[in-house]
Amino acid sequence: xxxxxxxxxxxxxxxxxxxxxxxxxxxxxxxxxxxxxxxxxxxxxxxxxxxxxxxxxxxxxxxxxxxxxxxxxxxx
Length: 76
Fold this sequence. Notes:
The chain is α+β, with helices and mostly antiparallel strands. It has three helices and two strands.
């Protein structure tokens, strides 16, 4: 699951000295970053993954016609 992976990455980054540099993958390229900026990127990705998960969980419990109305804009 993406959420757990981001949580582990943040924990691992927190254990690294702030004076060290880390490499973070973006697409197919690795970029050298400070630990602080890498944590910020991982935290943002974690927040996005949690929001997606909450959205999916909320949609799972909505009645079919409500989700259909939201997706298509159809009101009748």
